[in-house]
Amino acid sequence: MPEPQAEFAIRVRDLVVGFGRQTVLDHLSLDVRCGEILGLVGASGGGKSVLMRTIIGLIPRRSGTIEVMGQTIGAPHDRSRAATWGILFQQGALFSSLTVRQNVQFPLRENLVLSQELMDEIAIAKLEMVGLRAQDGDKYPSELSGGMTKRVALARALALDPPILFLDEPTSGLDPIAAGDFDALIRTLQKTLGLTVFMVTHDLASLTTVCDRVAALADGKIVAIGPMRDLLQSEHPWVRAYFHGKRSQMLQPQMR
Ligand SMILES: Nc1ncnc2c1ncn2[C@@H]1O[C@H](COP(=O)(O)OP(=O)(O)OP(=O)(O)O)[C@@H](O)[C@H]1O
């Protein structure tokens, strides 16, 4: 029996996306439940970023349907969606000529008409939410560490209080302690704000400690989805190779 719609923040059905002769996503279907942290794994070049970018309307699809919070996603660059999701791109993608405060305020300026005083208050609140200080708002991106850059990008992603957060490899480039702190921050924000989080990651620690469910993308489709313990039992050859290969076992001996 089909599950009721309100249970899902994102529903993707039979999605086909390609470039020229290359088909990247081949009749892919995926449900993301409201309030969960879903981790997406897949081979390099397998289509994880393409899937994320197609869901947010940046890449056109050949066929299939996408619903986000019950609304069908139509034309690319649909600006009315700005408050539905926040996005953390892999490199943080801050504007280098703007201060931290101006970066966080950017979505507010683009989408709302607010006084400067209110925007300053919101920026301070968002910076504190991600573990930064109000005075960090005066810095420029070049003055930030990798971990701080990710936090500022997260504060900017949360500026419009979106119910959904997309994270593209959020812990890449961070040392294990900073990565663990960032994971903990994501978990805290998800719990306190009731966020739905869609996270592309290769980080086995993130998958094990913060994701409620993990989806594996191979051959253009989701070939396994469920809690990490279910993925570890999957018989799919790519999923087995990913989680039970030598490198994974060295990092996570308990996976054996
Ligand atoms: N705009 C584009 N035009 C043409 N081909 C593209 C475009 N974007 C992505 N591709 C191709 O789609 C495929 C999937 O790319 P994608 O970036 O989604 O991989 P990925 O799974 O995120 O990889 P990684 O883990 O290495 O970041 C690749 O073959 C890539 O070359």
From TrEMBL:
<comment type="function">
    <text>Involved in beta-(1--&gt;2)glucan export. Transmembrane domains (TMD) form a pore in the inner membrane and the ATP-binding domain (NBD) is responsible for energy generation.</text>
</comment>
<keyword id="KW-0813">Transport</keyword>
<feature type="domain" description="ABC transporter">
    <location>
        <begin position="10"/>
        <end position="244"/>
    </location>
</feature>
<dbReference type="InterPro" id="IPR003439">
    <property type="entry name" value="ABC_transporter-like_ATP-bd"/>
</dbReference>
<dbReference type="GO" id="GO:0016887">
    <property type="term" value="F:ATP hydrolysis activity"/>
</dbReference>
<keyword id="KW-0067">ATP-binding</keyword>
<keyword id="KW-0547">Nucleotide-binding</keyword>
<dbReference type="InterPro" id="IPR027417">
    <property type="entry name" value="P-loop_NTPase"/>
</dbReference>
<dbReference type="InterPro" id="IPR003593">
    <property type="entry name" value="AAA+_ATPase"/>
</dbReference>
<dbReference type="GO" id="GO:0005524">
    <property type="term" value="F:ATP binding"/>
</dbReference>
<dbReference type="Pfam" id="PF00005">
    <property type="entry name" value="ABC_tran"/>
</dbReference>
<protein>
    <submittedName>
        <fullName>Iron ABC transporter ATP-binding protein</fullName>
    </submittedName>
</protein>
